[in-house]
Amino acid sequence: MGVEVDTVPMIRPDGIDALDARLITLFTENPSVGVLGASRELGVARGTVQARLDRLQDRGIISSMGPQVDPAALGYPVTAFCTLEIRQRQGHEPVVAHLAAIPEVLEIHSTTGAGDLIVRIVARDNADLGRVIDEIIDDVHVLRANTSMCLVTHLDHRTGPLVQAAAGRGAAS
């Protein structure tokens, strides 16, 4: 397959174009493709692929080229979500710092509604989940925790359809 000169317009300042979407999709589906492989697969110059990747990273659209890790494969098959009610006199920072020090805490989100934070955690088994929850609530700023265990993940974290929609191609892929 020969490499063609890129005739696709450059990135729009407010979003991505079809080539960006194809590039993001390719690296999402095949992270080890590399810049040269991507240029061959997409039919554009190697320099175009590198420039596009650099711009997408500079703009924060691509936040990482690192591998995705499966907690279950690491020995943490139990996933749970904790909704935390916290003391808000000192803001969220003290609780976030406490939670960030717990390796089993994977995500922390400030929320509206009944709780102040939602935390995604993993554990080795149910007993270990109890230990992780105890560690989470062992902070003077945490008033209450409500935990829900994940039984089955029906749709894991994804961005493909969003990338396609942002490029103006609909939600397919």
Automatic annotation (TrEMBL):
Listed Gene3D superfamilies: 3.30.70.920, Winged helix-like DNA-binding domain superfamily/Winged helix DNA-binding domain
GO biological processes: response to amino acid
GO cellular component: cytosol
UniProt cross-references to InterPro entries, sorted A to Z: AsnC-type_HTH_dom, Dimeric_a/b-barrel, Tscrpt_reg_AsnC-like, Tscrpt_reg_AsnC/Lrp_C, WH-like_DNA-bd_sf, WH_DNA-bd_sf
Residue ranges constituting the HTH asnC-type domain according to the UniProt record: 39-77
SMART domains named in the record: HTH_ASNC
Origin: domain of life: Bacteria
MF-aspect GO terms: sequence-specific DNA binding
Coiled coil start-end: none
Keywords for this protein: DNA-binding, Transcription, Transcription regulation
Pfam families: AsnC_trans_reg, HTH_AsnC-type
UniProt name for this protein: AsnC family transcriptional regulator
Naturally occurring in which organism (per UniProt): Knoellia locipacati
Lineage per the UniProt record: Bacteria, Bacillati, Actinomycetota, Actinomycetes, Micrococcales
